[in-house]
UniProtKB/TrEMBL annotation:
Binding site for [4Fe-4S] cluster: 45, 49, 52
Binding positions (S-adenosyl-L-methionine): 51-53, 86
Lineage: Bacteria, Pseudomonadati, Pseudomonadota, Gammaproteobacteria, Lysobacterales
Organism of provenance: Luteimonas viscosa
The protein's name in its UniProt record: 7-carboxy-7-deazaguanine synthase
HAMAP family for the chain: QueE
Gene that this sequence comes from: queE
Domain Radical SAM core: 32-222
Length: 226
């Protein structure tokens, strides 16, 4: 059997990403909630949020060629695709995958922690930026410069764990006028804050944000691949 030429091997490696799972479900949150969506979950994350529900994506996974990823996405036959993690932008080749998915005609969203520069993300992608609150344990990782890059096509999300988190997030939204820049989403940390409490606080303050609960958790709890 002939050996693979070094240049060919390098080219192949340059077109691969480590993938935890690819699956079809309903989008459970943000602007596209309720749409049948293919989720492409990349492996790895440099953060360790206290409320993380996808720790199984921190390690493992398998290397997949971008062409193979695109083929599997296409096989599901739906328009919406969400690239998530982990932290997908921790793999630099994610940028190329996002563009390829857009080129294929998909409506693409990216779920990112906000700890990594989003400036290189294809403008056709809706960036769902998760601003880390103090109770997440990762507030120091927020890359605040990212907020100035957000457009009406993007979304910003706060997972709120307690009243102090809420007041902190409210201050960020109002001081930076995020609601004038893009959709702002507040959701309760499932294990730490009552959804009713958070909803009541938002209503009392007439806060210009959208309350959301994670639809997929209501339907399937925390089952992987759902």
């Amino acid at each position: 059997m002939s050996a693979v030429a070094p240049d060919a091997a390098a080219a192949s490696a340059a077109d691969r990403l480590r993938i935890t799972e690819i699956f079809l479900s309903l989008q459970g949150e943000a602007r596209d909630a309720g749409w049948p969506t293919v989720f492409v979950r990349l492996t790895g994350c440099p953060l360790r949020c206290t409320y993380c529900d996808t720790a199984y994506a921190f390690h493992g996974g398998e290397w997949r060629d971008v062409d193979a990823i695109l083929a599997e996405v296409a096989r599901h036959g739906v328009r919406h695709v969400c690239v998530t993690g982990g932290e997908p932008l921790a793999q630099k080749r994610c940028l190329g995958l996002l563009s390829r998915l857009c080129d294929a005609g998909h409506a693409v969203s990216l779920e990112t922690s906000g700890a990594i520069d989003i400036s290189g993300v294809d403008a056709r992608v809706s960036r769902v930026l998760d601003v880390k609150t103090p109770a997440s344990g990762e507030v120091g990782r927020n890359l605040w410069e990212n907020l100035a890059l957000l457009t009406a096509h993007d979304q910003v999300k706060f997972v709120v764990c307690d009243r102090a988190d809420y007041e902190w997030a409210r201050g960020v939204v109002l001081e930076r006028a995020l609601h004038a820049r893009c959709d702002v989403l507040f959701s309760p940390s499932k294990s730490e804050l009552s959804a009713t409490e958070l909803a009541d606080w938002i209503v009392a303050d007439r806060l210009p944000v959208r309350f959301q609960m994670q639809l997929h958790k209501l339907l399937w709890n925390d089952a992987p691949g759902r």
